[in-house]
Amino acid sequence: MSDFFSSGWSWYVAIVTVLGLAFCLWLLIASSKTTAMSDDGTTGHVWDEDLREMNNPLPRWWLGLFIITVVFAAIYLYFYPGLGSSAGALKWSQEGQLQAEQDAANAKVAPLYAKFTAMGPEQLAQQPEAMAIGQRLFINNCAQCHGSDAKGSKGFPNLTDSDWLWGGQFDTIKQTIAQGREGNMPPMAAAVGGSEDQRNLAHYVLSLSGSAHDSLKAQLGQPKFAACAACHGSKGEGNTALGAPRLNDKIWLHGWGEAAILAMIQNGKHNVMPAQNQLLTPEQIHVLAGYVWSLSAPKSAAVAAK
Predict the structure, then answer these.
(1) Annotated binding residue at 24?
(2) Of 198, 184, 170, whose CA–CA distance to 291 is shortest?
(3) The CATH classification of domain 184-273, taken from the options 2.40.50.100, 1.10.760.10, 1.10.1040.10, 3.40.640.10
């Protein structure tokens, strides 16, 4: 699309806008000088024997109002965006206005966050004010995907358990919030083999977590797991460096059972968590990470500072 909307289109929009205003101004001035087409002040058109069409010019106050509108539009376009890609004399933009308002709001609450920036996760967990702020940040920015209770849903991780795709350490959570995450599992059907091999592999994956499975199929599918072990580990223990989930527990992010595993093998999966560092300040991310950490931290760690 950027190739389509070139600088030529910007000039086109600007020229059309200017010509449109000039035409409106000319039309208004020209209409104010229109004279009647007959001596009796009518156009000369008559209907039903005595119904005559008058040809009176616009009232001057009305005409003046239209002219003021055109002049106002010209002044506005000089100061503000509107003529193609021109930013206007004031260089105003929606993005700049939003950024200014965000900066003002952040400056106002900066003292509130300042006392938390030097605290570690255990200390943050002991601060009711920090946890209340973290909860509010979570509801406003994270609950849409992870749920207001942070327990997630299909395709969206549960943040209250100990199962973490990228790791549940405090610094890792901060990095995840700030920079986002992108996980990609490519389709593996070609590497595994035919449909029967894929079913055997699915049953072997089920066996890793102790789920109900066909033991014969699982035995036949074990060699096929070599195609998966590079990411998920030889025993299905996962790999937080790659965001590869564990397969040897009973936590299934995208669904459980043979059909769900086959869908993953055949179609793969691409998941994205957007970065939040453009919406939240580092201080807000620090407090939010402390709140998220507290949701799954061992109770002994959460109360250690008491």
Answers:
(1) no
(2) 170
(3) 1.10.760.10
